[in-house]
Amino acid sequence: MLTRRRFNQLTLAGMAGLATGPVWAREAAALELALREPRGLAGLAGSELRRGLIWNIIMRSGLGQSVTGAFGIGRVERGRTVDVFVSKPFRVAPRESEFPGDSFFPGDSFFPGDSFFPGDNFFPGDNFVPGARLEAAIELRAPDGLMRTEEQTGFFLAMMDARGEASCAGLYLPTTAG
User: Fold this and answer.
1) Do 110 and 73 contact (CB within 8 A), yes or no?
2) N or C: which end of the chain has fewer CB within 10 A?
3) Strand partners for 20
4) Using the 8-state DSSP alphabet, how is residue 169 labeled?
């Protein structure tokens, strides 16, 4: 259950992140994921949200060397995962780098036009080790984090070690029906 004290802590942390630049999922993960300009996603839906996410996502390896990673995203509706996408593996550099492109991201049909990011939320994150079954890790983790924020619809974005062995970071992006 989300207590008033925990809610205030999360709200302040989220506001600080929005004010200071990119919003990183977790600093301690071996593979890290952030949104460059989260406010730019406010009000976006469907293919516009897809393009906005591709442009906004930045990532890095926290291991001090390049590693092979995979991007995963889960779509959650009414508290359950309804769609999962895991990209082909690609190299993730130790420095901040942009998302490698469209071919590593789900298509327009993954982003329904009737749900949009309201822009008044912050991005709670999770740190996890996915294991060998990356799709199953996304499917299980996606609704859990959104439910902790008392939202039931949205996306879980994660940067994962392609082998499933290193700690990874993910962000929850709650959406609202429009």
Assistant:
1) yes
2) N
3) none
4) E
Its domain, for residue 79, covers: 4-177
Give the residues across from 157 on adjacent strands.
73, 171
User: How many structural domains compose the chain?
Assistant: 1
Under 8 Å between Cβ of 69 and 163: no
The greatest distance separating any two alpha carbons of the chain, rounded to the nearest whole angstrom, comes to 43
Q: Give the count of beta carbons closer than 10 Å to the beta carbon of residue 80.
A: 11
Tens digits of per-residue pLDDT, 29-46?
A: 788 888 888 888 888 888
**Pair 105, 33: CB distance under 8 Å:** no
- CB-side neighbour CA atoms (13 Å) of 156: 35
Mean of the pLDDT values across residues 110-121?
A: 54
> pTM, whole model, 2 decimals?
0.73
Specify the pLDDT at position 84.
Answer: 92
Q: pLDDT digits over 56-87, tens only?
A: 888 888 888 888 989 999 999 888 999 999 99
Candidates 58, 51, 60; CA nearest to 102 is: 51
Cα–Cα distance, 45 to 169 (Å, whole number):
24
48 Cβ contact partners less than 8 Å away, ≥ 6 residues apart = none
